[in-house]
Amino acid sequence: MSALRKAIRIALTGTAAAALAVSASAQDFAITGATVATGDGSQPVENATVVVRGGKIVAAGAGVSVPAGVAVLDGTGSWVTPGIFMPLTDLGLYDVGAVSNSNDIRAGDSPFSAALDASTAVNYASQHVAVSRVGGVTRASITTAPAGSIFAGQGAVIDTGSDPQPVVKARAFQMVALGERGARLAGGSRVAAFAEFANALREARDYANGRWDAESAHLTRSDAAALGPVLSGAQPLYIYVERASDIRAVIGLQSTYPNLDLVLVGVSEGWLVANEIAASGIPVIADPLDNLPSSFEQLAATQSNVGRMVDAGVKVAIGGLSGGITGPRTAPQFAGNLVALSSVPGATGLSWGEALASITSIPAAISGYAGRYGVLAPGAAGDVVVWDGDPLEVSSAPVRVFIDGVEQPLSNHQTRLRERYRDLDESDLPKAYDW
Fold first, then answer.
1. Residue 206 has pLDDT above 60, yes or no
2. Three-class SS of residue 370?
3. Mean pLDDT, rounded, for 150-163
């Protein structure tokens, strides 16, 4: 642990901090003298204060007064941000990827597709959740992956708290794959994928209007019912596409299905049609640094993709980081890379404020929680992360994490193993064979 990190941890665990022991109830507290970034796209402010009462943000910024009776934490030398909101991950849906009994990401043998509900499989005790929490991730939207159909099912919004109730919103959005992935699932062609998509929406409309014909339908009754909220616009539809022509085709769906609430996912060639995406008003969840084509639909991939789309006026969140050991918690690193990219000749990156927003307020807004999560603003949830340095630098780490004003444990299987073997005491090692 660096000397700076030790000093900050000592400052944050003094007498005032002792009043904020991990608890099942929200605490009232203020962090003073810190560098504060509110997550709304603005630049960080030095010597600022954040006040949390009743699990909500009361105030954040310079010149903020601390109300009487509120415990004060000295944040000198630390940074304070909203919690990271990681969009579109598989966090909490598997423990060991290669062990099918612990993996709920795909259901290729199921007769259902759109009706699948990711919220029913979330494991709040997963070490992947604990590892992400230690990395400053406080919220996430999760989804299963398409397997037997182009429809993956209904995703959910969760928090990463240590309590046994992680689901913030079940059936928060529907996920469908078009492009190359959809083509494979639909029979080998994009033509088949779009035909399956159009037929599914037609059958869902028939079901909603009482004209359901179970004998001729391709969808199950449950799948048709699950797509009803998508048709009405009550449930967002996340569409995975990468190629510029596929992106244009999805934008064109707005004229055929005007009620669809669309979100583009992947979008490696988005920069080629950035102006069209911006004009459509469709937000994007993009892989942060795709710079080499891993498929024919990504031939125009570039690290400048996100920066160019943002410059065109597209609302872009960084996503596509799977659960597990190197998943959501790496979001600040990728955001920092996009900041550094701004200094590369000929490249287009993000400002510091834009980069933090891409992993906090923007994914929260895309998920339907604008102003509630991902920001340090009055009335927002008390999701607060205290860092020992610039959060977009790989050398920095959270020293304190709060979700809804409740302080969270910063321990997991990794940290326990680290502490166990830090001193290299051989008595801690598993017993070896006797020879």
1. yes
2. coil
3. 97
What ranges in 143-286 are assigned the alpha helix state H?
179-186, 190-208, 221-226, 228-232, 244-256, 274-280
Q: Tell me the C-alpha distance between 81 and 77, whole Å.
A: 14
256-305 pLDDT, tens digit per residue, is: 999 999 999 999 999 999 999 999 999 999 998 888 888 999 999 999 99
Q: For residue 413, which of 134, 103, 166 has the smallest C-alpha distance? A: 134
Close Cβ partners of 41 (under 8 Å, ≥ 6 residues apart) = 353, 354, 356, 357, 361
- The span from the CA of 13 to the CA of 285, in Å, is 37
Neighbours of 435 (CB within 10 A): 3
| Burial label, 161 (beta-carbon count in 10 A; 0-12, 13-18, 19+) | buried
Per-residue confidence at 5, pLDDT binned at 50, 70, 90?
Answer: low
Q: Is it the case that residue 435 has pLDDT exceeding 50?
A: yes
The pLDDT confidence band at residue 424, using thresholds 50, 70 and 90, is confident
17-23: long-range pairs with CB below 8 Å, 24+: 17/71, 17/73, 19/71, 20/71, 20/73, 20/407, 21/407, 22/406, 22/407, 22/408, 22/409, 23/406, 23/407
Measured in degrees and rounded to the nearest 5, phi and psi for residue 328 equal -55, -30
Pairing of β 237-241 and β 167-177:
parallel
pLDDT at 376 over 90: yes
What distance in Å separates the CA atoms of residue 252 and residue 261, rounded to the nearest whole number?
A: 13
Backbone angles phi, psi at 175, to 5 degrees: -120, 130
pTM for this predicted structure: 0.91
Q: How far is CA 349 from CA 53, 203, 272, 301, in A?
A: 36, 43, 16, 14
Q: Do you know the residue count of the chain?
A: 435
Give exposure, 38-55, as e/b (b: 16+ Cβ within 10 Å).
Answer: bbbbeebbeebbbbbbeb
Tokens describing residue 108: 């290729």
The enclosing H or E element of 398 equals: strand 398-403
Report the DSSP beta bridge partners of residue 29: 52, 71
The structural domains of the chain, ordered by start, are 3-82+393-419 (2.30.40.10), 84-371 (3.20.20.140)
Strand partners, 103: 94
Helix H or strand E segment including 17? helix 15-18
